[in-house]
Amino acid sequence: MVDLLRRLRGLPRRLPVELRRLLPRSVRARATFAATAVVTLALGGSSVALLAVLHANLLRTAQQAAVEQATKVVETAAVEHLPSILALHGGTSVWVVDAQGKLVAATPDLLARPAVPAPAVPAPAVPAPDVPGPIAPGVAQHPFPRPAGERPWAVGARLQGHEERMVTMSVTGPDGPLTVHANASLREVDAAGDTTGTALAVGVPGLAVLVAAVTWRVTGRALRPVEAIRAEVAEITGHDLHRRVPVPRTGDEVARLAVTVNATLDRLEDAGLRQRRFIADASHELRSPIAVLRTQLEVALAHPDPELWPELLADALEDTVRLQDLAADLLLLARLDAADPVAVELLDLDAVFAAALAARAADRVPIAAQLAHGAVVLGNRTWLTRLLTNLVDNAQRFAAGRVEVELAVRDGLVVLEVRDDGPGIPADDRERVFERFTRLDDARSRELGGAGLGLAIARDLAGHHGGTLTVEPAPVGARLVARLPRADQAEGAVG
């Protein structure tokens, strides 16, 4: 069925335009056409085979009946005189002639017909087949079908237009040499074939029509939920992502399709909300430093005092750097959201993180590092360095006087922990801190230059390397833990 549907799908490309219009185009019509064609071909072939087998069996039965009746007469003629009327049963006509072709005995159905003498058939000198009963020594028996067009003894070879099968045997007994003819009519064979053929001629088209009607109805009922899903999706726009398609209770492939479509709509709605929130937050974050920078430039123009310029230029430079960092963070987030491919390599995080931390020796809050050997991952050097930098920047922003960095290998994972001795992160905010532009202490974060993107970027970087980033309980301060797969488990993890 599947192969037939595929051939029907590809057939229109190989046919002229006029014929393409005649082929079914909908799934429902193609399924109905394919099912009906398969059933029709199967029933047609089975009908032909059935008629052939039935005809062969009936012919064999008629032939066997003629042989049995002739054998009975031969067995009787071999030991005694034959009566003029042969009392046989089974519907087979039997007549016996002597060496001169004179009729010796016949079944009652032949006695009422005018007899036509038949030429004597000499008995071949071959061993007789296995015929039960006493056979006179030296008697030869030979059954053979009548040649085409030959008429049997008595009334001709066709009774009311029906073919016959004749068997001839020879025997020598008390009545002398005799020839036994047994003629089996194929009237019943023809009648059975005609009846069966008529029944099949009516039944096969009827079954084909029934299959077409059932397939059309069942396919329509099966595709009705798909049409409902299509209609609902067609009405959903960018402002209606909260709508969902109906999920049928059948639990079949259509129901799973509806669940998948709803899950896709969930992701689209979430992405749309995040995009709108991201645009609003980015606009807000960009508006503040731009407004401050404009104010500083306007003040410098309004007071052309060279003594004020160094301070104004320093403030303007600070806001420009802040704008530059924010723009870089926004571009990185856009790249992470787009899942653009990046170059990856085998990295020993011991060496990568040691070099990154050595460049921060003059930071306001000192960093105590404990880096383990063998922390090899498959990733991007710039992104993993940015992951560490964001975590350390966040810890130094809130630390009182100590930041600890620990790199270890546990349970087949590379684990990076960054701890500080600051106020810590409340349990209710341990997931919210990873949202973009989120600040738990907004005034302090703005003063220290944070835009609320560091931890969001860090989590996305860990996720793109097949890892995770979470906030975990700590006795003092905050404890952020990033877990990355080792190199032997990370192939294909970076997206």
Could you name the key traits of this structure?
single chain; 495 residues; alpha+beta; Helix Hairpins; Heat Shock Protein 90; 5-stranded mixed beta sheet; 11 helices; rod-shaped
Report on the structure:
This protein has three domains: 1-235, no CATH class; 239-337, Helix Hairpins (Orthogonal Bundle); 341-495, Heat Shock Protein 90, CATH 3.30.565.10. The protein is 49% helix and 14% strand. It is built from eleven helices and eleven strands. The strands form three sheets. It has a five-stranded mixed beta sheet. Strand 1 and strand 2 form a beta hairpin. The protein is rod-shaped, with a radius of gyration of 50 Å. Mean pLDDT is 78; it is low at 115-161 and 443-447.
Structural class, by secondary structure, is: alpha+beta
The rounded distance between the terminal residues' Cα atoms is 40 Å
Rg from C-alpha positions? 50 Å
Low-confidence segments: 115-161, 443-447
Biggest β-sheet: count, sense, barrel?
5 strands, mixed
**What general outline do the C-alpha atoms trace?**
rod-shaped
How much helix, percentage-wise, in residues? 40-55%
Question: How do the strands of the widest beta sheet line up side by side?
Answer: 6-8-9-11-10
The overall average pLDDT, rounded, is 78
| DSSP summary, beta strand count | 11
Domain module count? 3
Order of helices and strands: HHHEEHEEHHHEHEEHEEHHEE
